[in-house]
Records
---
Amino acid sequence: MPGVDSASLTSDLDLEWKISMAVSSSEVRSLNEVVVTLNLITTAQDGSKIVRPVEMTLAQFKDLKKTVENIHQQMENAKLL
């Protein structure tokens, strides 16, 4: 993760997600777009929680889902799971 020394992180990782509707923004008066928010949560060695929010459109989320499914399939084929 940018700005975080990966060696200082422990191996635990949690994922929270929610789906919401963006109805407007400071640049677009009427947006009406589905937004998926993912919070990647891990714990630093000192015990503090590190939360990295990621917002994406529904199309971007579907691309991410497809990519994760492809990675999972390749790992199964390589007998890594």
---
Amino acid sequence: MACVHMAALAANLPGLALATKALIAPLLIVVVLSALPRRQPTARWLTLALVLAFLNDVVPGFTPWSHGLDPLLFMLALAVYAITLAPHWVRELDGLHLLLAIPYGGVVIGLFLACAGGAGPLLPLLVVYAIVLAAVAFLSAGVNPLTWIGGTLLLFSSSVLGMSWFLPGAWIPQSDLWVMGSYLTGQALLVLGILRTVSARRWAPEPAGASLVIVEG
């Protein structure tokens, strides 16, 4: 579906591009609900993030008057991804994961400084957007390689998208293809990486160890 969407963008077929884009998040929701029990917190958070991503994908296309919702919906989706990643990041915490804050923080700070001048009244939204984006990139890097790559691609996609929102005059050749290609791939890898770490933990053998049994007579 993602390949069809990218082909539709490249061929300048907006109707097909919008229709295929609207199907991607629901397909990922089906994958999540097929892989995890619905009562599990990770399944609920992932589903919520994908619902928000779905709304971000389709609302502007079907309701042109609502373009101002783009940054807000996408920011909310990123915030829910950060909440989903946080407990898995804590379980895998080590020194290398903490060092990853430096390059990701540098990218986000650079994006903020570049866009702050053109944000105008949207500056508070830009601040929150930058913080949430940094959190997702940082947390995703500390779970497993799939989430690491996925989070990095989302950082790239969101940076290009943020420039189009907050930096007047910013122009990148074929930006739609770059944004959507990295966004769709990044989101899929992020979701699959989270599912993989949850599945691996579920089937991990219990640690062997001595146990003390007290028998009362």
---
Amino acid sequence: MAVNQTVTITDETGVHARPATVLVNKAGSYTSDMTIEYNGKSINLKSIMGVMSLGIPQGASITISADGPDEEEALAGVVEVIKSEGLGE
């Protein structure tokens, strides 16, 4: 059963190249399938081009989902990166 969490992007430039790369790399370190959802679109969080294609601005609510053997750890890890990078809360 998948787990998910919604976060609000607070970085004034939104999800741009550097934080997107950090998120994709973190997601890639887990076995679980991971997605990021914004504005009705759900994209593989392990795809840098996919994440960048969403064009997520400051103030956006995004939902991070994980589904797989390490889903709880994966979700917590990615949300922690979002917070530690100052990307969102």
